[in-house]
Amino acid sequence: MKKISSLLLFLLAVLPSCGIAAAHTTGTAPAAAGQNPAATADIPALWISGTAVPGGVQQLEAMPDGKTYKFAGQLLPGELIIQTTKKAGKTTRYIVPTLPDALIVSRGIRFRETTDAPSAAATWQVPFENDLYRFTVSIARQQVSGEIFQPWGELFIAGGATEVGWACEGKILLMKQDLENPCLWTWEGELRQHPDVEEPRSFKFQGQDRWHPKSLHPYRQGTDILSEPCLRTGGDDTKWEVARDGRYRIQVDLFHERVTAELVKP
Fold first, then answer.
1. Are residues 119 and 48 in the same domain?
2. Is the same domain home to 16 and 116?
């Protein structure tokens, strides 16, 4: 029954990637021995360990907002522990789910923080091996959400800094998908200030030739495309800007949520 229950929860978690709506998975729990709910505001780094982690331990990537940590890569079937130190010790704090046998793939499960080493039931569960696991630890929301990433079929760039501006649904600039890695997209073209449009130096990336539902954004409004590689999928409608006019070459890695850019001709 435990295996059947875990499978059903996993299927509900991945339904959104197939275009089917699913309810949010959440959980709440009272404070337990060793728990420190307020301490999550002071987490400078996070690691994962356990039987589900290739190599035994890996560090999560900290995002520019200072309150988000992400993982993208291979996981194995087994248990996953989220902790504040690389090696477990007396000062280690653990991010544990408020639901028993919680899957790492979900729309969002609340966590609590504890100094007690988690039992098997209080670890995050990985049901099977896959190379495209992604999950996010949100300190601000006190939740962990995850997915098995599905490569997008299209990616576009548009905005005030592009030749098509903002009134461009149906004619947004298409990026080119890498033939060997479907998660990599490139575009080369002119980005410059257009004083006659709103937000004349801004732009963003869209997952379709219209504004909804899929979009990519920087963590901070007005981020120079040459200065910050981290991006996020969805959320607030922040945009990149170009500080210098010219011809740019841009590559987006959808799986790892990173963007690199080069000013090839001022």
1. yes
2. yes
Burial 31-63 (b: 16+ CB within 10 A, else e): eeeebeeeebeebeebbbbbebbeeebbebebb
Asked if 22 and 128 sit in the same domain, the reply is yes
What one-letter code names the amino acid at 19? G
Q: What percent of the chain has pLDDT over 70?
A: 85
> How would you classify the pairing of strands 156-158 and 124-126?
unpaired
What letter represents residue 137's amino acid? V
- For the residues 142-159, what does the mean pLDDT come to? 98
For residues 123 and 232, membership in a common domain is answered with no
pLDDT tens profile 153-170? 999 999 999 999 999 999
Paired with 251 in beta bridges are 186, 260
Task: Answer whether 108's CB lies under 8 Å from 144's CB.
Answer: yes
Q: pLDDT digit string (tens) for 186-221?
A: 999 999 999 999 999 999 999 999 999 999 999 999
Residue 192 lies in domain: 156-265
Average pLDDT, the chain: 88
pLDDT of residue 40: 54
Q: How far apart are CA 21 and CA 25, in angstroms?
A: 12
Domain boundary among 117, 132, 148: 148
- Residues 215 and 205: beta-carbon distance below 8 Å: yes
Regarding whether 98 and 194 lie in a shared domain, the answer is no
Q: How many Cβ atoms sit within 10 Å of the Cβ of residue 142? A: 16
pTM greater than the 0.90 cutoff:
no
Q: How many domains does the chain have?
A: 2
32-59 average pLDDT score: 78
Q: Which of 97, 122, 148 is the last residue of a domain?
A: 148
Return phi, psi of residue 133, to 5°.
Answer: -70, 140
